[in-house]
From TrEMBL, chains A, B, C, D:
Top-rank lineage group of the source organism: Bacteria
Residues within the DNA-binding region(s): 39-58
Native source species: Streptomyces griseochromogenes
Keyword ATP-binding: no
Protein name in UniProt: AcrR family transcriptional regulator
GO MF annotations, alphabetized: DNA-binding transcription factor activity; transcription cis-regulatory region binding
Keyword Aminoacyl-tRNA synthetase tagged: no
PANTHER family reported in the protein's UniProt record: HTH-TYPE TRANSCRIPTIONAL REGULATOR RUTR, TRANSCRIPTIONAL REGULATORY PROTEIN (PROBABLY TETR-FAMILY)-RELATED
Residue span(s) of domain HTH tetR-type: 16-76
Keywords: DNA-binding, Transcription, Transcription regulation
InterPro entries in the record: Homeodomain-like_sf, HTH-type_TetR-like_transc_reg, HTH_TetR, Tet_transcr_reg_TetR-rel_C_sf, TetR_C
Amino acid sequence: MQSRTPATRTGRPRSAAADAAILAATRQALVELGWSRLTLGDVATRAGVAKTTLYRRWAGKHELVVDAVAELFDELELPDRGSLAADIEGVVLQFAAILARPEARSGLMAVVAESTRDDALRERIRASIVDRQMRLVLEGRARAQCRGELPPEPDQAEAARTVDLIFDMVAGAVVHRTLVSGKPADEEWVRSFTRVLLLGLTAAPAEP
Amino acid sequence: MQSRTPATRTGRPRSAAADAAILAATRQALVELGWSRLTLGDVATRAGVAKTTLYRRWAGKHELVVDAVAELFDELELPDRGSLAADIEGVVLQFAAILARPEARSGLMAVVAESTRDDALRERIRASIVDRQMRLVLEGRARAQCRGELPPEPDQAEAARTVDLIFDMVAGAVVHRTLVSGKPADEEWVRSFTRVLLLGLTAAPAEP
Amino acid sequence: MQSRTPATRTGRPRSAAADAAILAATRQALVELGWSRLTLGDVATRAGVAKTTLYRRWAGKHELVVDAVAELFDELELPDRGSLAADIEGVVLQFAAILARPEARSGLMAVVAESTRDDALRERIRASIVDRQMRLVLEGRARAQCRGELPPEPDQAEAARTVDLIFDMVAGAVVHRTLVSGKPADEEWVRSFTRVLLLGLTAAPAEP
Amino acid sequence: MQSRTPATRTGRPRSAAADAAILAATRQALVELGWSRLTLGDVATRAGVAKTTLYRRWAGKHELVVDAVAELFDELELPDRGSLAADIEGVVLQFAAILARPEARSGLMAVVAESTRDDALRERIRASIVDRQMRLVLEGRARAQCRGELPPEPDQAEAARTVDLIFDMVAGAVVHRTLVSGKPADEEWVRSFTRVLLLGLTAAPAEP
DNA sequence: TGTTAAACGAGACGGTACGTCACGTCTTCGC
DNA sequence: GCGAAGACGTGACGTACCGTCTCGTTTAACA
């Protein structure tokens, strides 16, 4: 998670249990207190761990919360629901369900806000959170192409741009609906959204 | 801005110049320091104002930044560009230009993050920022209906839902593109986005 | 005490009561905890004062304790007891009484220890504590010369050296007896000490 | 402190070397950092020893420093210089030379300070440091009595009191001169001091 | 034109959390 | 089976901002 290279052989090894306890405590604190009132001292106490142990593993509040929130997105999956529309609706609903949880709501936007000034943090978010979501988009597209619902992309670069666009549209719409408009991304909304998106992607462009 | 009712007659009136100076100083500090390193003491110093004066007008960092950022959205306009597509492209580009400015990037997501736990703040954001944007969507739709590009909406509630959906899709996509993906919402991207959105909306059958 | 020049006119003035409360709390903590277990946070709490207030006035534990202990020496006086021997015995007993108090014992040697590496601290100790004691030696000598018990000193430099010597002998003996040997400098000991000292001084021929 | 020669004794041949290395490292750290900045982790590193090893042998910083400083006083000797005055001058100069060394200055007063609250520490200091010095006083008195410079003491208790007094006067004066007044106990000062002391002890008491 | 009451700058105040440091204890593994 | 390496819980450190509170001083509307 945070230690890329073990590097050392000697000495007492770091407690793996501590990592899990800290991340769980972080999520719990996010639920109860929200981002701005969450303190690392409190997280350490909840985890039954010393503050120093926490600082040995994470550089600060932002990094810690990225890792704690990232674990929430582990549950995102893309079971085959039979059609592209159903697949999209399914994954959007899953995504909305995660964003409906207070531990995600409180922390996610805060770390994104900070990432506009901290490239390392942005990279960490990309690797831990965004890529997890992006993978589903790629998977869904491949599956739809297998089914023949989408034509195979001849142009590699154009394909990447399209995937980016779709990803920003999907994730952006759900995030905005949930966190800015403050309304639930429920089944009805998801169905409307999916219809517009899919139609926009598959209908023949009536360009002049 | 923040004082609904002056209520008093006597005494020295509040300096209007101080308000402007404080908001300008806030934006300057956002540019230089970002949200997390911005302090109210520093803002007061930059504005040539005592901390007390600042606290007399705003309850805290979040409220202050909402107002400071909100002013950036005053410049959003919807000149008639001749077609719905052109109108959308125009306003999305304007929106993207604002989000590209560091004083907006740094602060916007932070207050949105906090608003997930603070209803008064959410309401303030809605009134100061979101409504300014939503108005353009309504205006654009009305203009498109005048032009005959869109059919008049018979169902009031359905119309409101559609406007909400469009708004979340537009704002969400631009925000996600700019702040999460970290890529510019340039003309090419905006054209692609607009094509998909418009196609999805206009080709949409009134499916049950 | 610590602020030589008030320097400013504007702003909220510092609380004089806080100073007194902090120094009293420091002495109380010295009594209960001793030097090494005394913490500034605890002192602040005892004084009913924020830690920051304490740090605004003193640079650290050493400086604070110097001032707190120095006040103990304010009570040193030299009433005329009729003879040089009686004067010396009186002041040595006073000095011993102060060193017998736990708030002095705990702190005094600690700051002296630190002063061997910190010239500013040494100077502060000299000004706050040592000079208070030295003044008594000078006063006692002057009074003895008035009485005719001691001859007037013709050589200025020699006189200074003698005063320094006497001071180191008096203060050193009492401190060593009390803090190193750990035995009380009671009346009997003081009488013996005074006899030796006085005999050594008055019988001393002006040997080259 | 690795022993190059294996010396395949399956006992602990390193133990003695480690002790010496740790004490030497302690003194070196005292010189470079002084008491308050000396840390046991640093001492262990300097000695090429694990912190664990250090804690197995000493209970803490105070105990360690007592032992490290005590070794400095091993060099105190009392060669026969022919007269009581010369003997005193000699030993006082030796004592002053030790107190002039930074490893003694920094540590000695600190442990004395702590010993005012810690009886075990006081006892350790007495046994390791004070008795070493006291022995010289006893030795000097015995030698002076052999020479006939001092009369034999008939009263045992009175004799002990006198020795204590002399010891406190000698050690106290040198310590105070060196560490509090911050001036060197050089030959001139020592000669003056010895003259006063000796005259005070040997002259006939002119008591009324 | 003088009163007067609020707003102003300055900055000290009681707090809270920060991130660091050293302590003294405890694992783990290598020699 | 020591002993180095180092992670651990603990707790104090000194700092930075917070938001509040005096102060003494403008300053503009009212009298």
